[in-house]
Amino acid sequence: MSMLSSEAVCLCLSGTAVLGCLVLCRCKYSRPLQSWMLCLAGIWGGACLLSLPFFWSLILFSLSCFLLHTCTADEELLPADEKAVLVTGSDTGFGHGLAKHLDKLGFTVFAGVLDKKSAGAKELQKSCSSRLSVLQMDITKPEQIKDAYSKVVEKMQDKGMWAVINNAGIIGFPIDGELIPMNDYKRCMAVNFFGSVEVTKTFLPLLRKSKGRLVAISSMGGSVPLMKMAAYNSTKAALTMFSSILRQELSKWGVKVIIIQPGGFRTNITGTSDVWDKMEKNILENLPQEVQEDYGQDYILRQRNFLKFMHMKTSPDLTPVLEAVQHAISAQNPSPFYAPGKLTYLWVCFASVSPTILLDYIIQKLFGRGQDMPRALSMSS
Fold first, then answer.
1. What's the pLDDT band for 34 if we cut at 50, 70, 90?
2. What angle do CA 315, 164, 98 make, to 5 degrees?
3. What is the pLDDT of residue 88?
4. Which residues are 112's β-sheet partners?
5. What is the pTM of this model?
6. Long-range contacts made by residues 369-377, C-beta under 8 angstroms, separation at least 24?
């Protein structure tokens, strides 16, 4: 009987672990490896800690199987029906891909761009359907946001707005937090956080009327403290918290707030070589003499290697992000969080539950390996 009970416990733990992984990971938008790793961790941990009588093991296992079937069944998506969707930062990257993808699905897309004369904006106008409208929308300029709002209302009239996707963002130059100029911190916050807040506040009346969706394109970096990303990650953490609070506050209006935390995807958010030159120059011009002597100019100039490292380690296929956003705005019951990208969900979970000393050690090993040392430290060693 004890052997039978042990087998039932193992089955129960396996089913429960699989259920938890699928529900949390939304395996449709995550890598299978993530689910299997979490399953194994749940099985081994539970096997050590849990001991149940045969009857309750069987009941829990049956319930797990039922919930597993319910939660993993294909969910019917709401029809596009020309629902209006605003996507900020549509010039390039995720925003550009989303504008095209949602247009093909039949949504009425308002593509907010930094520059209406940019190559990305012109391509959208040329390649997309007549349902797509390109809007001049620098989200750091309230007057452009208000003008975009007026144009949306004028076109949609009483149809309202179904979804707002806060995607626009900048990353700055990845370097030690002490070396990032204050104007770069402020610029990142102005675009990645305050701009998104301004867009949200402006368009929320339309979302409340339609009981629609508010989607924030945050980042894995909003939860994981990655080195050299102090400015960018801080703004994404602020956006994640802002959206999490709105999720609770707007639930009474029937508005669903969803946060997308992509992992490493290859967009042109890092900029071009010319942009890097300007950012390097800005850093060197704003450093106090003592700090510049301690770090050394060569150390600062070598940080371009980190940009090359980011480029090599990121995926050029944006499909997981596009599908996650599609599900977020089309599913009847979307998940509050999506983490598209290889191992992204594992990183977010690990950062939230692991001891700080362990998290720091692993990040140092993975991202600090072979890293150059500042001049003062290399001279003293």
1. very low
2. 30
3. 97
4. 135
5. 0.81
6. 372/299, 372/302, 372/305, 373/299, 374/294, 374/295, 374/296, 374/299, 375/293, 375/294, 375/295, 375/296, 375/298, 375/299, 376/293, 376/294, 376/295, 376/296
Q: Distance (Å, rounded) from C-alpha 261 to C-alpha 25?
A: 12
pLDDT of amino acid 158 = 80
For the chain, how many residues are written? 381
Cβ atoms of 124 and 87 within 8 Å: the answer is no
Q: Higher model confidence: residue 86 or residue 273?
A: 86
**More confident site: 381 or 224:** 224
Q: Which of 29, 149, 232, 345 is catalytic?
A: 232
What's the one-letter identity of residue 155? K
Cβ–Cβ under 8 Å, residues 86 and 329 = no
Predicted pLDDT of residue 20: 52
Residue pointed to by tokens 């979307």 = 334
For 153-159, the CB contacts below 8 A with 24+ separation are 153/206, 155/108, 156/84, 156/108, 159/84
Mean pLDDT of the chain: 83
Q: Exposure pattern of 214-252 as b/e (b: 16+ CB <10 Å)?
A: bbbbbbbbbbbebbbbbbbbbbbbbbbebbeebbeebee
Told to judge if 232 belongs to the known catalytic residues of this protein, a careful annotator would answer yes
- Crossing angle between the packed helical segments 32-49 and 344-353, to the nearest 10 degrees: 40
The count of C-alpha atoms lying within 13 angstroms of the C-alpha of 294, restricted to the half-sphere facing its C-beta, is 8
Q: Which residue has the tokens 């956003």?
A: 325
CA angle 146, 151, 152 (to 5 degrees): 95
Is the pLDDT at 48 greater than 90? The verdict is: no
Q: Is pLDDT above 50 for 244?
A: yes
Residue 45: other Cβ atoms inside 10 A: 12
